[in-house]
Design a protein that fits this description.
There is one protein chain. It is built from twelve helices and twelve strands. By secondary structure, it is α/β, with parallel strands linked by helices. The protein folds into two domains: about 1-100 and about 255-355, Isopropylmalate Dehydrogenase (3-Layer(aba) Sandwich), CATH 3.40.718; about 125-250, 3-Layer(aba) Sandwich (Isopropylmalate Dehydrogenase). Strand 8, helix 7 (about 190-205) and strand 9 (about 210-215) form a beta-alpha-beta unit. Helix 1 (about 15-25) runs parallel beside helix 12 (about 345-355), helix 6 crosses helix 7 and helix 10 packs antiparallel against helix 11. The structure holds nicotinamide-adenine-dinucleotide (NAD). Nicotinamide-adenine-dinucleotide (NAD) binds near residues 69 and 281. Nicotinamide-adenine-dinucleotide binds near residues 16, 68 and 84.
Length: about 350
């Protein structure tokens, strides 16, 4: 029996993760689900952000269903002392280099977007973000005094194999979709971007059936709000992807709608070990109120079935249930129209469950 590690974490993490867990248990009662502590809940118990027991559970699991980590009281501390360190370690140690973020606007939610409905109706793009390289991981990363001046240093590094493997993820995906990869860089300024563009061009030769476009990141940010439907697969390095995927998320009306998968090299296609989580954080401003939108967490569970358990029918069943619930008017507070009644996290999840 496959085991799923359930790491709910902090803030709204437990609220939305338990919603997703309920859906998963309904669709796949045959799997073993084991919960473990992570983030601030672990730190408060005197444990590291990623306790040994939690890591051991992840080691023997097929996939991780993750909530969110981070609380305001830990802000300003060093990375190692913060709840977010758990996520950093998981991404680094399991080499979860491929972050897949589908961005879809559900029928009936066009009005929730900050853009005009006609610009986002039917929007369906995927951001492929490189997750274990670039400026977030490059060394040195420190603050030191140089010539008597306090100097903060981050280092952006990319090597061809890192670019090659993430580019392949994008091209393979584009092949199954509308056949367009838009690679984002800043090659007019950055050395790493020049290398990125060169390697992506080389990989593209293996995929003559896929069209490749390059965009500078500032232009990409602009095009995403000007004509988002022109994109199919958006391929980016780590930091650009972090920013652009949040921008893309808000096109759907709420950051609470967007799932993600982070996949590594362990496993085979369809049965890859991965971490699945909403793209948002722990939302401390609404935590404990029972109003968080569980869509991102539930759709992350669908991605888990697709990429780690080779269960496409199960994934589609969950996606269809979410979409039907929304078409039938189910709305949490973040996506509700003025004058309409919003549902709590639990009520929304019950609506989804009726279609599973
Ligand atoms: P956030 O994503 O938690 O919240 C941003 C805004 O979106 C808030 O107004 C919040 O209420 C809203 N929001 C987010 N998810 C929602 C949902 N499901 N339903 C309704 N509204 C939702 O970002 P933040 O406030 O910048 O960060 C809060 C904490 O989360 C910080 O400690 C940060 O470090 C951490 N964080 C964690 C992750 C992660 O675990 N992967 C990612 C980003 C931020």
């Amino acid at each position: 029996m496959s085991t799923i590690a359930v790491l709910a974490g902090d803030g709204i993490g437990p609220e939305v993760t338990h919603a997703a867990l309920g859906v998963l248990q309904t669709v796949r009662p045959d799997l073993e689900y084991i919960e473990a502590s992570v983030g601030a809940s672990a730190l408060k118990a005197g444990l590291p952000a990623l306790p040994d027991e939690t890591r051991a559970l992840c080691d023997r699991s097929a996939a991780i269903l993750f909530g969110a980590v981070g609380l305001p009281e830990y802000e300003g501390r060093s990375l190692q002392e913060r709840p977010e360190y758990a996520l950093f370690i998981l991404r680094r140690d399991y080499e979860l280099y491929a972050n897949i973020r589908p961005v879809q606007v559900f029928a009936g939610l066009e009005d929730a977007s900050s853009l005009k409905p006609e610009l986002v109706r039917g929007l369906d793009l995927v951001v492929i973000r490189e997750l274990t390289g670039g400026i977030y991981f490059g060394l040195p990363k420190e603050t030191r005094v140089i010539d008597g001046v306090e100097t903060a240093i981050d280092t952006m590094i990319y090597r061809p194999p890192e670019v090659e493997r993430i580019a392949r993820v994008a091209f393979e995906l584009a092949r199954k979709r509308r056949g367009l990869v838009t690679s984002v860089d800043k090659q007019n300024i950055l050395e790493t971007s020049r290398l990125w563009r060169r390697v992506v061009d080389t990989v593209a030769k293996e995929y003559p059936d896929v069209r490749l476009e390059h965009l500078l990141v500032d232009n990409a940010a602009m095009q995403l709000v000007k004509a988002p439907k022109a994109f199919d697969v958006l391929l980016t390095e780590n930091m650009f992807g972090d920013i652009l995927s949040d921008e893309a998320a808000i096109l759907t009306g709420s950051i609470g709608n967007l799932p993600s998968a982070s996949l590594g090299a362990r496993g085979t296609p369809g049965k890859r070990f991965g971490l699945y989580e909403p793209i948002s954080g722990s939302a401390p401003d609404i935590a404990g109120k029972g109003i968080a939108n569980p869509v991102a967490a539930i759709l992350s569970a669908a991605m888990l079935l697709r990429h780690s358990l080779d269960d496409e029918p199960g994934a589609r069943k969950i996606e269809a249930a979410v979409s039907t619930a929304i078409v039938n008017g189910a709305r949490t507070a973040d996506i509700v129209r003025v004058g309409e009644k919003s549902l709590s996290t639990l009520e929304f999840t019950e609506r989804v469950l009726t279609f599973c």
